[in-house]
Sequence to fold (188 residues):
Amino acid sequence: MTAKGNYGYAKGLKRRRMILMFVCFAFILADVLSSLIFFQTKKTLFVVLACIMSIPFAKNLIGYLMVIRCEPLSREEHEEAEAIAKEKDTTLAYDISITETEGVLFYPCVAIYNNNVIGLVQAGQNQKKKDAVTYLKKVQEGVPSKPRVVVVDSLKEMKRELDRLNPPKEEQLRDDVKIAERLMELGF
Fold:
């Protein structure tokens, strides 16, 4: 199981949600069918158990539907992002989602560097940059050194933004860790 913030997290989450959804559905189906076959009625405790099993089924179905539109970086894009991170001597967070009442905002890659949060929003996901910045600014809540938030739509733009920044000082590295922790708290 890939940890949150690592490359491959969204893909693994999709797979886990789908498997759990089908397992729950199989139990529900087996439970109802066994009640019908053995007792020739739906008025048994087996059906009550099936109703209770529908709760985790629904939870996993909703979780899967939330993740289905989250499209992570391709292998080539991931390698390009890692080359940028190595050049700037920083780490990147991958597959970051921020849940909102309107839906889910997905950032395939986020750089946290010298009190700056640079989020990548891939083109074609119908996310407006302004909304993406607004939701990513939630990182500022609970962090004393309000980081600057920027959203880009390509890895080249991300590299340009990182090139503009000075290397962080020791105390700034501690703040960057707090910012990263806050970022991991925001989504699923």
